[in-house]
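User: I'll paste a sequence; please echo it back and then give the predicted structure.

Assistant: Echoing your sequence first, then the prediction.
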Amino acid sequence: MNTVLVTGGSRGIGRATSLLLARQGWQVAVNYRSRIDEAESVVNAIEREGGSAFAVQADIADEQQVMAMFAHIDAEQGYLAGLVNNAGILFQQARVSQLSAERIQRVFATNVLGSFLCCREAVKRMAHPQGRGGAIVNVSSAAARTGAPGEYVDYAASKAAMDALTTGLSLEVAAQGIRVNGVRPGFIYTDMHADGGEPGRVDRLAPLVPMQRGGQPAEIAETIAWLLSDAASYVTGAFIDAAGGR
């Protein structure tokens, strides 16, 4: 059975993606940092539907924890054929003039360093000739294009770095049987907005979206699942903006 690792797989887009991929026949490694109850809830939901999943703890900003997570996945039955770099953090809305070095470092440690580390370990396992190939999807953000002024420029910059990783890595490993693509969600109804101090942010900004609404995690999950699938077998180094036209 092919295994896919979904980082930050216990909440929001990660949860929706884990559930969808399990329905499509993947064995899902549901990564979580601290909320084991939420991860186990996803695993239980998958198993109730007849799917296969297991929870694996790791703070992806920590190299040793990332390596231990991949060792855990290696010990499970199945071949690691997919990686969804979905885990990401942001903090209270602030202008650049208000940002501390500690905050910037923490955002980049998870969103950038963590993605690099997970990609590194996945490529080691997927690359030809030792591996059988695979697919990586990096969950970026429309903020990488807009810059998120006055709110989350540090977060936007971290997602722009992820886009550069997507482009560069896709070219490095294309001949090794690995596809690397990115998804840039727009305003999506997830708990992340509460982390930034404004739970109702999507509703406030929805009028700025050409489609006049925020998106649902399940809609982003469908895009991620397509990029992982054989239906996208000739697609690499690409970005899908799932932002309602914004």
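The CA atoms of residues 22 and 194 lie 28 Å apart. Residues 101-126 form the longest helix (26 residues).
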